[in-house]
Write a structure and sequence with these properties.
3 helices; 2 strands; about 5% strand
Length: about 90
């Protein structure tokens, strides 16, 4: 069997090292999340993102833009906290 390639066929010239594999939990600290149901969406307010937004971006498709009310946002923050910036 041949060795698995860890170098892409197409790449930017300034990147010349092999790829490495990491688990998401090794790169970021995922602690908690709040589920927002579609019937809680509003037309304006606090912009939210979801896993379907990540999938849509990966597939170069569009996804419905979703918002929630400020009251719901505050309620969710009280349960799970704010998103926090971390450094590595």
């Amino acid at each position: 069997m041949s060795e698995k390639r860890t170098v892409p066929k197409l790449r930017f010239p300034e990147f010349d090292e092999e790829w490495s594999s990491s688990l998401l939990g090794d790169l970021v600290n995922v602690t908690s999340t709040s589920r927002v149901h579609k019937d809680e969406w509003t037309e304006h307010g606090i912009l939210i993102s979801s896993s379907s937004d990540v999938v849509a971006a990966f597939n170069s498709t569009t996804n419905t833009i979703a918002y929630i009310s400020l009251d719901l946002y505050k309620s969710l923050v009280n349960k799970t906290g704010y998103v926090k910036k971390t450094t590595f």
